Amino acid sequence: MTQSLSGNISLQFIATLQANVGLALASQAPIARKVSIDFADGAGAGAAHMVYSAAAESIAASGSKTYDLNASLTDAFGTSIVATKLKALLIVADANNANDLLVGAAGSNPLAGIVGDAASDIIVVKPGGVLLLVAPQAAGYAVAAGSADVLKIANSSSGTAVVYDIAALLA
What we know:
- The protein is mostly beta strands.
- It has a single domain (about 50-170), classed as Sandwich (Jelly Rolls).
- It contains no helices and 14 strands.
- The strands form 4 sheets. Strands 4, 8, 11, 12 and 14 form a 5-stranded antiparallel beta sheet that branches. A 4-stranded antiparallel beta sheet has the order 5-13-9-10, with no helix packed on it. A 3-stranded mixed beta sheet has the order 1-2-3, with no helix packed on it.
- Strand 1 and strand 2 (about 25-40) form a beta hairpin.
């Protein structure tokens, strides 16, 4: 089966800070920043050719899950994913989680480049929070088989499981 990929990652950050003086609106400071990044099929800049996604992934209390981006994943059609570049990563923590998601610090063969020290640094995603990383350049985030290909997501505490959705564009 021949596959091809096209996609777009869009993000909006809109907020207005305002100050009232008495009954009058004295000033406003609006922010409206929109970002839109297109992806075509391929491996160069602005390109990817593999997609991994999973909805409602669950990690037991104090547990963790690893994703080998160069060996163990399959796409929606059952095709093996053997990536050398991570172009985009989306992790959405369920709003009903009691615990945080901890992303990174895989220990063995950690994905490098998304945090300073890939072996020990983490990104904390709070309940209802979102982590979005996008690297549209040709190099993306490097994925190297056997040395820098594992993404780890962990449950920050005991007591309850955590649930999240994950999606990745890869080349």
